[in-house]
Design goal:
The complex is a heterodimer of chains A (160) and B (587). The radius of gyration of chain A is 16 Å and the shape is globular. Chain A is an alpha/beta fold and 160 residues long. Chain A is 34% helix and 22% strand. Chain B has five helices and 32 strands. In chain B, a hairpin with a 2-residue loop joins strand 16 and strand 17. Classes of the chains: A alpha/beta (160), B mainly beta (587).
Chain lengths: 160, 587
């Protein structure tokens, strides 16, 4: 019965649409300095993808976006933010991996206390968001199937 | 079964509605966001598993259905936010620590966490449930990990202030969560971080010096039954000091932490003082990077509460975070018998791990590249007293692993990965502290191919083989996955012991209690498990549906007993066969 109530509550509030703005949370950048997620908003639309070193589909998705990135950039102005949710245990591995996977064009940030993850309501990784130039979350999806990166591109193109 | 069908229909309906009206709600200027995660299993009878006495889902005290659910609701306006999360275990899924150690007798368990928070530019205050950590979490970390149904959030208050990035100071106090109850032992602490590089105006790198303190009341020191422990301190004090340095691709991070008093609640090691040193080194140049970690720790397990059975308190009973550092694999056979930590039983461990990555790519042909990854880890136990404190057990090797993977993107359509791992583990130390080692060696080979037929259709195949040197026998595994991007994915997998050896992996609690269906013991006079020669398949079939904010996965299969690890902590999962439905919804 409680389960029913859970779902009913979830449904009850599931109406009327509007874009949500990206929360402002403190994370670390590649150099280990604390930055504010609001600073990521600079007028350029972005793909924000939550990943971790132990999440294989996350890495597949980020690699697939990376493979297509230059083709996409010919058509739209955009950037990719890879948010590692690795904790103290795998944080140094995550930093090494972003360098050694050729994600040179990504903005890599590290959410080791998972504050950004909680604020964005991410429960399963990969979870990918599209945020417009003003910081509004316009689209999100979780999970990855090869080819679904195309949908991200379509959505980001539609922002124009 | 009725319950399961009910769940299924509710889920189907809610998915339909969610798609029709995927939304957030605006309440005035503020906004509300909602996330639901629901994990359900209906356990089906499996004569074959029961025949081996490996597990009998019908023995489950709380029926054939389990469900772990999380509903999180947040409200945000400007710098203010508030939220609640309802955790429902209806009842908990089999094999999660909360199932065993839950303190409520009720079949259905619920727990509510909540917070209000103000985040200003340079300072912030939070009241309610707090998730935080000092440094690497070696003396304090509160967090949630749903894969383990772990949550030790601190109910209390936290404040921080940042002065010009030079000084960052944080204080907090509260009561940690212990499975489904609130501990009565107050925990408090503070953290100070000084950025030397910012103070000196140095822009080419980062130097910081940090320190933390955590204290906790220990109720029960007066208890006459515990007098033999000779613990007189009513307060447990822990400290940590850190120095971090980064410049031009080099990284050096170090932490030393210590438990200054005897820990009343860690009775397993007679409450001795503890200490730990952790050093991270990193270097990166262009597309090459290497990272190494060294750690030595003694008695750093810090339980939240005292439970009567030594060692039998489960992974959820932890105030700090001393995780396993070895690589956590995603391939089935590489994860068959993971390292579960010698320090759990011996009180001390020394070891480290190393990763190297290199990406070889041509800037003109983005669709063609090689990615290389190499990993090595090794952990030994330290010399220590046995459980009774009578004799000394010499430290010995508990785990060694060497592995690498080579990923090749050949073209837009084809990608292959080759993976190899050598693992050596002391099987006896996985279960208890014994002077006699029992080493198992395994070589694991994996081939992984992804082929994209067109923009929507793709297929992935995994072939895996594990060659073992001992009585455990060799294993074979395979997986076929077919994807219709972006919404559907289907998979079939199987894993079996090709030498027809029945698995000896078992829970601590019933390690010596293996019986077949007729009640005959399945171990010999030396308590070594007897192997039956029969083929036992661990198969899975499943489908995943993803659309916008909805993700649902339905699967059916037989699951092997073993350790399930997430974020460096593991839980023991008994074998079971069943239907699983996992669902996440975000609004």
């Amino acid at each position: 019965m409680k389960k029913l109530m859970f779902l009913m509550l979830a449904l009850f509030v599931g109406f009327s649409a509007s874009a949500q703005s990206m929360p402002d949370v403190k994370v670390e950048n590649q150099e280990g300095k604390v930055i504010s997620t609001r600073d990521l908003v600079d007028g350029t639309p972005m793909i924000i993808s939550f990943w971790s070193t132990t999440c294989k589909p996350c890495i597949m998705e980020l690699n697939a976006i990376n493979d297509n990135l230059y083709d996409w950039l010919e058509e739209v102005d955009m950037k990719v933010v890879a948010v590692s949710v690795d904790d103290a245990r795998t944080l140094s591995r995550a930093r090494a991996m972003t360098q050694g996977q050729g994600w040179d064009d990504y903005t890599c940030i590290y959410d080791k206390n998972q504050d950004f993850k909680r604020a964005m309501n991410v429960s399963l990784t990969p979870h990918t968001f599209i945020v417009d130039g003003k910081g509004n979350v316009v689209y999100s999806h979780s999970g990855y199937t090869p080819g679904s990166e195309q949908e991200l591109f379509e959505k980001i193109k539609a922002l124009k | 079964m009725k319950k399961f069908i009910l769940t299924l229909s509710i889920v189907a309906f809610s998915m339909f509605v969610a798609e029709e009206a995927a939304a957030q709600i605006k309440a005035g200027e503020g906004q509300v966001s909602i996330a639901l995660e629901s994990n359900n299993t209906y356990y089906t009878p499996d004569k074959k598993l029961e025949g081996y006495g490996i597990s009998k889902p019908s023995d489950r005290e709380r029926g054939n259905f389990g469900s772990n659910d999380y509903l999180k609701v947040d409200y945000n306006i400007g710098r203010f936010s508030a939220g609640i999360q309802l955790d429902g275990y209806l009842p908990p899924l089999y094999g999660y620590d909360i199932y065993k150690f839950s303190r409520r007798d009720s079949k259905l368990t619920a727990f509510l966490t909540k917070y209000v928070q103000w985040e200003d530019q340079n300072w912030g205050v939070r009241l309610g449930d707090i998730y935080d950590q000092f440094g690497n979490g070696l003396i304090f970390r509160t967090y949630e990990d749903r894969a383990l149904a772990f949550n030790n959030s601190l109910a209390g208050a936290r404040a921080y202030y940042n002065f010009n990035n030079y000084v960052n100071v944080k204080v907090l106090a509260g009561l940690p969560r212990f499975y489904d109850v609130r501990s009565k032992n107050v925990v408090w602490g503070g953290d100070l971080a000084l950025s030397i590089s910012d103070m000196a105006g140095w822009n080419n790198g980062m130097i910081s010096v940090e320190g933390s303190y955590v204290g906790r009341f220990q109720d029960g020191v007066e208890d006459s039954n515990l007098k033999y422990l000779n613990i007189e301190d009513g307060i447990l004090n822990m400290v940590s000091g850190r120095i971090n340095f980064e410049t031009a691709g080099f990284t050096f991070r170090s932490e030393y932490a210590a438990k200054l008093n005897n820990d009343l609640y860690d009775q397993s090691r007679n409450g001795d003082k503890g200490n730990v040193i952790n050093v991270d080194l990193g270097y990166s140049y262009k597309r090459f990077s290497v990272s190494a970690t060294f750690r030595r720790q003694v008695n750093m397990r810090t339980p939240i509460e005292m439970l009567p059975i030594p060692g039998g308190t489960g992974g959820g009973n932890a105030l700090n975070y001393v995780p396993l550092l070895n690589r956590q694999h995603t391939y089935m056979l590489a994860n068959l018998n993971p390292y579960s930590g010698s320090a759990t039983f011996t009180g001390g461990e020394i070891g480290g791990q190393l990763d190297a990555y290199y990406s070889l790519r041509n800037s003109k042909q983005r669709m063609k590249y090689w990615n290389f990854h190499l990993n090595f880890s090794m952990f030994n136990s330290l010399d220590h007293k046995d459980w009774a404190g009578m004799s000394t057990i010499k430290g010995r090797n508990a785990w060694v692993e060497f592995n690498f993977d080579v990923e090749r993107q050949w073209s837009k359509k084809l990608k292959t990965t080759l993976f190899y791992s050598y693992q050596r583990r002391d099987e006896s130390m996985n279960h208890e502290d014994t002077p006699i080692a029992h080493y198992c060696d395994a070589h694991i080979f994996v081939g992984d191919v992804t082929y994209k037929f067109n923009k929507k259709h793709s297929m992935r195949i995994e072939a895996q083989y594990l060659a073992a040197n001992d009585t455990a026998g060799d294993w074979v595994a395979g997986l076929i996955e077919y994807n219709f991007a972006p919404k559907f994915s289907f998979y079939v997998s199987d894993m079996w012991n090709c030498e027809k050896m029945v698995d000896s992996v078992s829970d601590n609690d019933n390690y010596f209690q293996l019986h077949d269906k007729d009640g005959n013991p399945m171990y010999d006079e030396n308590f070594q498990p007897k192997f039956k020669h029969d083929l036992l398949h661990y198969y899975q079939v499943g489908a995943t549906y993803t659309h916008k904010n909805v993700r649902a996965q339905l699967s059916y299969g037989r699951n092997r007993a073993g350790y399930v690890c997430s974020g460096g902590a593991c839980r023991f999962q008994p074998a079971y066969t069943g239907v699983n439905l996992a669902l996440t919804l975000t609004f």
